[in-house]
Amino acid sequence: CVLFPCYAVAVCAIDTHAKENDTRNMRNMRKTLVLYAVIRIGAITCPYHDVILQSSSRLGSTANYRQRRAADGRSVAAQPSASRALASSARVVTTEELDGKYSVLTDQVDSMKVHEVLEMASIYLKEEDPSYRLNDNHDPKKRVGTWHFNRLIFDLGERGSTICGYLAQDLLEFMVTKVVESRGATERTIVPKPNTLTINGVLKAWSKTLMDEPGGPARRCESVLAKLALWQADGVLFNVSADTVSYNTVINCWKESVATVPGAAKRATDILALMEDKSTDILPDVVSHTSCISCWAEEAKRDPAAAEVAQDLLTRMYERSKEDRKAPVPTTRTLNAVLLANANTIATGRGKKALELLQMMERMDIVPDTYTFNIVMKSLANCGDAGASKKAKQFLSRMEQSSSGLHPDLLSYNTALDAFAKEGKSKSAARLLEEMVNKSIQPDSHSYTTVLTAYANARSEEKVWALKEAQDLFETIEISFASGQSDFRANTQVFNAYMNVWSKSGDRKALTRVTQLLSFMEELGFEEGGDPTVRPNDRTYCIVLNTLASNSKNPRTVDTSLQILEKMRSYNELGFQTRPTVRAFSITLLILARARKLKNKARKAQDLLQRMTREGIRPNVICFNAVLNACAFTGNEDEKEEAFTIACFAFDQLRGDPDLAPSHISYGTFLKACRKLMPAGDVRDRLVKGLFRRCCSQGLVSHFVLKEMTAMNVDYQSLLEGVSGYGNLPPTWSSNVENEVTYKNTRV
Fold first, then answer.
1. pLDDT tens track for 494-522
2. Which are the contacts of 729, defined by CB distance < 8 A and separation ≥ 6?
3. Over the range 388-418, which residues count as b (16 or more CB within 10 Å of their CB) and which as e?
């Protein structure tokens, strides 16, 4: 570590982990780091020294290099002759040769500690006549050349650590330095000159580097190609160039950055356009196009227009393939990426669009696979169109009857179940689940959760039947596991879904049953040595709170809900994922607001709101509305003045929050508070008229607001801007009301 300070942190971490798990991968990792140190022979200082020192010790294991070399060998053999010439210095070796012959270090490394291996490396560096010199006189079996560097770089590229890209870049810089030094040499010198495989290895290492900077790996990859262009211009690497794989790696890096970097999909498309330009010698392949389209598939989750861009890229690729025989032809995977972009788009009509894309696929003579049909069914499940679940089931039947080897998998059935559940067709979902079991397809947590969710959302006339079916299903899951007929045991998600069925059932025993299930989960999950797969989470407690909310007229439910919040906090302090959420607080506030004959209701609601802030939880609009509601329903005459003060403070706080804004519920509830807590008179009329004007300007006049205005008998005809008697309200007055119709021909 004295000789190699830049590796001290990494080596210590490896040594600690090796003591616990001294596997072949750990031994290979030692070889890699020490080989890296020995190859350098102290020639230059690591330019990324500070970065490596600051990096965490999240080093992955060394991948199986034999597979990597075999793949490289196949890619080299498949290249044109000019490209093979560029890669000629990277030998394709046999399996026997890979077993240590070309390792700088001896086989003793496998049984040595890290510090012992470093001592061996330090001996090499201290020798007056180093054992590993870069010249012709040394044993060719142990000569350090391009192959050794490429092997190390590709090993780094398989890791997925915080430093692999920096180390690979350092090796590339060192190789280029050696090339520059050899240009003035008078005698022939063996130099580890970078080739295309070296560049691709460095790009891969950067793509696997774990970085906090959004888009960092993609930008580093682009910088490598920019440096390569400078080295080519300077004549240092005039015959070394990037290839299709190089640019595909950069595109893939941008694909991984779409979720965090705005414009990442556009950048990937620009790179693809550069490859398509006839002035370049690099031609895009199927991977180039598919990766670029996949960028837009991810972008479609945020931008509805992304699906159209993905389809345009497909159309452009298909037209080019018809004009030029050498151009890549769209494959099943390419079409699947376009379908996925369509499925990820939150917009109406996407189910119909998926069917059109499937027809396009058939016109292109592209054979769909199971994943293709799964994506089409996903589009149908998410589109919200009438009859979408029926069409999803038809695709499932089509796969089952296919003569081309297509078979529905677990994902296929789960997607169809989602479609039924979203349409509230609980009976159809139950039949499909039974069909899965009969066809020996083991349902998973998602399957059972989806069916139970369908039972929870059953129509009111089916509630009794749905609860009975849910009970039978849950008992079947438990009995099948206990008897060994199934390996699946109900987990937290299944328990939550089952509790939600009880919570929404309206059954008088619902609260008792939900409480029993919660106690059972706590006993199984929180006890020492308990089962973490059935441990309650924040959603579990929210379901219990929702069940309490249906009985919230009883003042005792307020104390119970507060006890649940305290229980969540206590378990969270023990390290469990039960921290009270905004949803938990908002439900508790609603319970408090609805409770009858509760003393100091408004003050308690305000205290709970302030507690959220103290615990670092930002209240949402629902929380403020619940406080306003608690104030409005304060029945004790002695508390009304304080309740109105709290209501005014809460409403002003909501209006002043930079991230929140009052909703039509906020205005309606505050108007209700004014009606119930203020005495009739000019003061109240002026306040109410001012609120109504502000509500109109913000487009939040809803039926609820008009109802409260009417209940106060306030003469607000003068506020209707020329509309007198029975007329039409201006559309702008209700333009921002969510889940409400625009009030035309409203009687005022």
1. 999 999 999 999 898 999 999 999 999 99
2. 701, 720, 723, 743, 744, 746, 748
3. bbebbbebbeebeeeeeebebeebbbbbbbb
